[in-house]
Recover the amino acids of this structure.
């Protein structure tokens, strides 16, 4: 009410995105957020994200999509529709019922009962009879023959013949080895060792002693007392009789003569400098 007690003046309602007409329910929250997030276009200015480059790229892309993509998409949809129609006509209505009927007619009603009857009343009894014949006529007689004519005689032969003979043979071979080693030791090894110790070693030692006293000692004494002094004397005589005079002649005669000859030739201009 106003100051005069009358009803308040009603303000005319104008549509907008933020108020509702009187008595209308409030819009949901997502619509209010959507209105706030995307304000309505007023028609002034380009759309958000649009510009010259966007327009230049958008129209060729739309033309290419209209010329290439849309016909290919329509062709693909047409092929899918034709395939579905062919499948529906030839498979669902024609081949599938025929194959299902043939399966029921041939397999369920004819082949399966016949094969089941043949297997149960013919093949199974024949197989059982063959198995009984194989077991009772072949396997068991062969097993009996093998057990009583091969296995048990082989066991008895091994237990009472081969194993004792093998043990006796091993014992005989061991005894022969021991006897042969003993005979070889007494007849060959021990005589040879005694011969080595009692004969060859003393003879070798005697030969070594004789060689040392008759050859080594005289030769060493002759070398030290005769040959070495003679060699020293010969070397001294050679040094004083031959080497020293030749050295004196060379130093005091030949070398001055050579120098004088070289000076004369150099003075005459014959020799080099």
């Amino acid at each position: 009410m106003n100051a005069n007690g009358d009803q308040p003046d009603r303000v005319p309602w104008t549509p907008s995105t933020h108020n509702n007409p009187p008595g209308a329910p409030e819009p949901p929250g997502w619509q209010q957020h959507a209105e706030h997030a995307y304000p309505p276009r007023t028609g002034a200015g380009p759309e958000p994200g649009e510009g010259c480059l966007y327009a230049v790229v958008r129209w060729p892309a739309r033309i290419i999509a209209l010329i290439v993509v849309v016909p290919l998409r329509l062709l693909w949809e047409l092929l899918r529709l034709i395939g579905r129609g062919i499948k529906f006509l030839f498979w669902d209505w024609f081949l599938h019922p025929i194959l299902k009927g043939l399966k029921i007619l041939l397999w369920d009603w004819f082949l399966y009962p016949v094969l089941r009857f043949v297997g149960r009343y013919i093949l199974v009894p024949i197989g059982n009879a063959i198995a009984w014949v194989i077991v009772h006529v072949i396997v068991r007689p062969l097993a009996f023959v093998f057990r009583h004519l091969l296995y048990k005689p082989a066991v008895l032969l091994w237990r009472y013949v081969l194993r004792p003979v093998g043990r006796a043979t091993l014992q005989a071979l061991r005894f022969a080895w021991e006897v042969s080693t003993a005979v070889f030791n007494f007849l060959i090894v021990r005589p040879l060792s005694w011969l080595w110790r009692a004969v060859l070693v003393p003879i070798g030692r005697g030969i070594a002693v004789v060689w040392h006293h008759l050859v080594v000692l005289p030769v060493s004494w002759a070398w030290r007392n005769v040959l070495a002094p003679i060699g020293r004397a010969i070397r001294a005589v050679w040094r004083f009789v031959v080497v020293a005079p030749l050295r004196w002649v060379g130093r005091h005669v030949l070398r001055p003569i050579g120098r004088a000859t070289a000076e004369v030739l150099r003075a005459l201009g014959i020799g080099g400098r």
Notes: The chain has two helices and no strands. Residues 1-8, 33-39 have pLDDT under 50 and may be disordered.
